[in-house]
Design goal:
mainly alpha; 11 helices; 4% strand
Length: 280
């Protein structure tokens, strides 16, 4: 083939850039660096941290509950031992009482909450624990007395208004005489917020979340226990063994039209020169 023909053939062969047309060749990408095996991602690390913190919190909560349960058991046991007359305690019981008493003193010196009032959450729980220290005969006596008070309260509300032909009917005059006799023997439960100790708050029995409940306030509780026998029994055991003065006032003053002065004389109240009413 002549040189002229070869030249023509070469002119017909397209150059590589022409064969690819106008498409652009992609730029080379840097290689992806893989994390070495065994290395966690940030997300995995945070997840593990959260799980570990949750486990720690659960362990701490369990420990706290166990400590509270143990403290409650000791407080209950202390009250049970203390309720046993000294002459009737065995040597083992006396030693146990002394040990628990010393333990509470040491805890109190450290500023820790001690005693039954610092362990219970509700007054019903407080009452149940204290009732567990009562003998069966004593419990029955208190229950029977409370039942009698409930009968009187029921009569004050409805009994004197039933049909006179009913066998349970008690005339008003006779019923009031029974009430007066009951008060002279058992006194009244002071629920009107008036006390002999005038430093006692009228909100002593409130559970409104604002005032400290009496069963968790050792100072207030001590005053209430010393106020009267019915107050002592109610605050310590939850038994209503005397007519509440608020119910008695509603019945005698508002329904039977007694004067408030007559009511005060019956229950043992007095009014000072400043007009403040309290028990004498």
């Amino acid at each position: 083939m002549s040189e002229i023909e070869n030249k023509k053939q070469e002119d017909k062969i397209p150059a590589p850039s022409e064969a690819a047309g106008s498409a652009e060749v992609p730029a080379p990408q840097p290689p992806v660096k893989e994390k070495p095996k065994g290395i966690l991602t940030d997300e995995q690390v945070q997840k593990l941290k959260g799980e570990e913190l949750a486990k720690i919190a659960a362990r701490n909560e369990k420990k706290s509950q166990q400590e509270k349960a143990a403290a409650m058991q000791e407080a209950v046991r202390f009250e049970q031992l203390r309720a046993i007359p000294a002459k009737l305690r065995s040597k083992e019981e006396a030693r146990e009482l002394n040990r628990l008493n010393q333990k509470q003193r040491r805890a109190a010196e450290k500023g820790e909450a001690v005693g039954l009032t610092n362990q219970v959450e509700t007054r019903e729980q407080y009452w149940d624990i204290n009732r567990s220290t009562l003998s069966k005969p004593k419990m029955e006596i208190l229950q029977e007395r409370e039942s009698r008070v409930e009968d009187i309260l029921n009569w004050m509300k409805y009994g004197h208004e039933i049909d006179p032909s009913d066998e349970l009917y008690v005339p008003l005059k006779e019923g009031i005489a029974d009430i007066i006799a009951d008060i002279k023997e058992f006194g009244v439960l002071r629920t009107m917020g008036m006390f002999y100790d005038q430093s006692i708050s009228p909100f002593w029995d409130s559970e409104d979340g604002v005032h400290i409940p009496f069963y968790k306030d050792t100072v207030l509780l001590k005053k209430l226990l010393e106020e009267s026998t019915p107050q002592n029994i109610y605050c310590k055991y939850g038994f209503c063994t005397a007519i509440p003065d608020s119910d008695l006032r509603d019945f005698l003053v508002y329904r039977c039209k007694w004067s408030f002065d007559d009511f005060m004389r019956l229950v043992g109240m007095k009014q000072n020169m400043e007009g403040r009413i309290s028990y004498s």
